[in-house]
Amino acid sequence: MVSETAIDMLKTELPVEQDSFILSEDVKTGLVLVDMVNGFCTVGAGKLAPVQPNEQISQMVDESVRLARMFCEKKWPVFAFLDSHHPDVPEPPYPPHCINGTDEAKLVPALEWLENETNVTLRRKDCIDGFLGSIEKDGSNAFVNWVKNNQIVNILVLGICTDICVLDFTCSALSARNRGFLTPLKDVIVYSHGCATYDLPVHVARTIKDALAHPQDLMHHIGLYMAKGRGAKVVSEISFGALKEP
Ligand SMILES: [Zn+2]
């Protein structure tokens, strides 16, 4: 088992300073939700779903609902990735999950209403990195087009898993921004309480052949640390208000 001490030690050795982010009418911000699907978030929904209620995942869903409601009330742009796979195309190293047309590949019940919102773009993807998963057959990129069409300056990223799909998407978005593909995008902001990862403790992984241990708190922290290292802003608080002093 990973002890509390090991996690505390890691947090001391690899600290992630977290700021707060103020959402403002003055700066166009887009909300990016990564894989808020049953297959990753709903207890017992599939091979990659939590096996029992999980606080980190519940908090992530609650925070996503809160922010999505705020964005939809204001008709601000929202881009939601949904992991969805063709039944005949595996995604190693993962077992089959989120197969097209199943409940696993659907938004969690608390976010199903997003399907009817005009400011929301839903994007099914069949790979870890949503940036790659946004490439269309003609070579265009649905995510790039969303940023450009909406003239988005900041993206606020929430989702699962902090150290997998959220991290890979964040890194690709940062590289694309640095190469000038995402103008006018300035900041990629990862909201820590709006992200979660799965839990496979070391003592459980030892009992499963070839399993790679994945202690939740530790890997969540590492995901945030890596994102910050690549140039994302990591925030632990989001408020709404005017950016400038009157
Ligand atoms: Zn997948």
TrEMBL record:
Domain of life: Eukaryota
The protein's name: Nicotinamidase 1-like
Protein species of origin: Melia azedarach (Chinaberry tree)
